[in-house]
Specification:
- It is globular and about 30 Å long.
- Helices cover 26% and strands 34% of the residues.
- Strand 1 and strand 2 form a beta hairpin.
- The protein has one domain.
- The chain has two helices and four strands; from the N terminus they run H-E-E-E-E-H.
- The chain has a four-stranded antiparallel beta sheet.
- It has 62 residues and is α+β, with helices and mostly antiparallel strands.
- Bound molecules: zinc ion.
């Protein structure tokens, strides 16, 4: 399963339906998250982590 598919599962499991994908970026409530593989090894880990991305904020305001 691709990272993107795992991220989608993770979000939907959390009960969030207001999200979209911008290429490989997950956007929830206007906040962009980078999708990354997680290798923490926790038994209940779904193998994906979402990292909040602030990279675009400045540009949006210009
Ligand atoms: Zn993990």
């Amino acid at each position: 399963m691709s990272l993107k598919a795992r991220a989608r599962e993770k979000v939907e499991r959390a009960g969030i339906s207001n999200y979209m994908f911008d290429h490989d970026i997950l956007v929830m409530c206007g906040v962009r998250y980078t999708i990354a593989a997680c290798d923490c090894g926790e038994p209940d880990c779904d193998g994906v982590k979402l990292e909040r991305s602030a990279a675009m904020v400045g540009r949006v305001l210009q």
